[in-house]
UniProtKB/TrEMBL annotation:
Origin species: Jiangella rhizosphaerae
InterPro entries associated with the record: HAD-like_sf (IPR036412), HAD-like_SPP (IPR051806), HAD-SF_hydro_IA (IPR006439), HAD_sf (IPR023214), PGP-like_dom2 (IPR023198)
GO MF assignments: sugar-phosphatase activity
Domain of life: Bacteria
Protein's name according to its UniProt entry: HAD family phosphatase
Amino acid sequence: MGPVSAGLDPAFAGRRAALLDLDGTLVDSEPANQAAYRSYFMARGWDLDPEVLREFAGRRGAEVFAQLPGPWAGEDTTTLVEGVLAHLDHDAHPLRPIPGAAELIRRLDAAGILVALVTSAGRAWADHAVGDVLGVREHFAALVTAEATPTGKPDPAPYLAGADALGVAPSDAVALEDTVPGLRSALDARVGLVIGISTGASRQTLLDGGAHRVVAGPAQLLRP
């Protein structure tokens, strides 16, 4: 079954693989993540500009803490991330699938397109999101999580690892990303088609970040 007959956007025609970001692309987790950072910063007595929070979107928290100047300078980055995670409240901000995400993954698999998750999140979070929240774990050929590569997005290592796990050239793949660091990672890995998902960042921000195309969400990549 080809992509079009499987009910997919023609952009997937001729592609062997789909490399999919998780947070903000497949699941609506950013409200919970941002609230956790705000709560942790308040608990530490850090009154920070909201722009600081945006620096953490799509990236490994430990790497942002290590690279971004702030009141945490000199502190252990792993301990800082653990502090943020302790403030996650999924009762107040439940994790929900982004409309169309699960169906897109099912149709990609049905069309014979290999699917890999490429996320800055850890393995436990990824397993929960694709298994319990989306219910599509069996449709993924590979999960590339924070533990898989020494550096995270915007470095190309995660997307290179995703393509390698599927046994395809990055140029034969499509990537879906909702943040500029994620776009940069996919573009620098030479992924053939990089589609921005404007669930958080604006369409123009994603285009300026290098996206070849921008859609509002996964549902816009489905066809009747």
